[in-house]
Design brief:
It is a single chain. This protein is α+β, with helices and mostly antiparallel strands. It contains 2 helices and 12 strands, in the order ββαββββββββββα. Strands 2, 3, 4, 8, 9 and 12 form a 6-stranded mixed beta sheet that branches. A 4-stranded mixed beta sheet has the order 1-11-6-5, with no helix packed on it. The N and C termini lie far apart (124 Å).
């Protein structure tokens, strides 16, 4: 969503607008400047106190005679808290400035796209005296909404992935806890198999001995009969 701002119109910006009006044209806002200075803006300002970056206006529209909507994308490697904002005209003049001595407006992370979307109330200016010169990127609120939905979906999927990872780790922990029990059961099974094999060998040996004794007795009985 866009942030409503009522920036202070600078004396230099007002003079630039009057010059443009005398030529029969409107002053054009071309860039949005961001800085990390925190203060109460002054009308005699000609620049931000601590400007960190400046971005071209990507798109915008007129919401009324003295209200306009601006969008831009901050996508460089700079990182800072956004505590002051300047709106720059085509000739480089600081038209208006916003800042707050206590509150930061946003955080600009390094190499992460930050959508800048502002609704400006320029009630101190003549109607229709300011227009927007965009880079033609066509960025608007509908795109901002899509980007927000995409970001939310990505965050949700990441959270679900973290949940799956936690469940997998929990299952792995339970399996590791069962490994000693499984090993004990395997050892017992092998011992029982060995006992069974030993019992089987003993039974075979006993049966063989019995058979041999029977054969020997029969042989002795036959010899006695023949001798008689």
């Amino acid at each position: 969503m866009s942030t409503p701002l009522a920036p202070l119109i600078t004396a230099a910006g007002l003079a630039s607008i009057w010059r443009a009006s005398n030529d029969g044209v409107s002053a054009q806002i071309t860039h949005i400047a961001l800085g990390d200075g925190a203060y109460a803006p002054a009308q005699d300002q000609t620049k931000l106190r601590s400007e960190k970056a400046r971005y071209p206006v990507a798109g915008g529209e007129r919401l009324g005679n003295t209200q306009i909507h601006l969008t831009a994308i901050a996508d460089d490697a700079k990182a800072f808290w956004v505590r002051e904002i300047g709106f720059i005209l085509a000739d480089g003049t600081l038209l208006a400035v916003w800042s707050d001595p206590k509150a930061a407006l946003a955080y600009k992370a390094a190499d992460v796209q930050l959508l800048l979307a502002y609704d400006l109330a320029l009630n101190a200016l003549p109607p229709d005296s300011v227009t927007i010169q965009s880079s033609g990127a066509g960025l608007n609120l509908s795109l901002a909404s899509e980007l927000a939905e995409l970001a939310a979906a990505q965050i949700g999927e990441a959270n679900r992935g973290l949940g799956r990872d936690e469940r997998i780790r929990a299952q792995e922990g339970r399996l590791q806890a069962l490994e000693p029990q499984v090993a004990t059961l395997q050892n017992r099974s092998q011992a029982l198999e060995q006992e069974h094999a030993a019992d089987k060998r003993s039974g075979l040996e006993l049966a063989t001995a019995n058979a041999a004794a029977i054969v020997s007795m029969q042989h002795l009985f036959v010899k006695q009969r023949l001798g008689a």
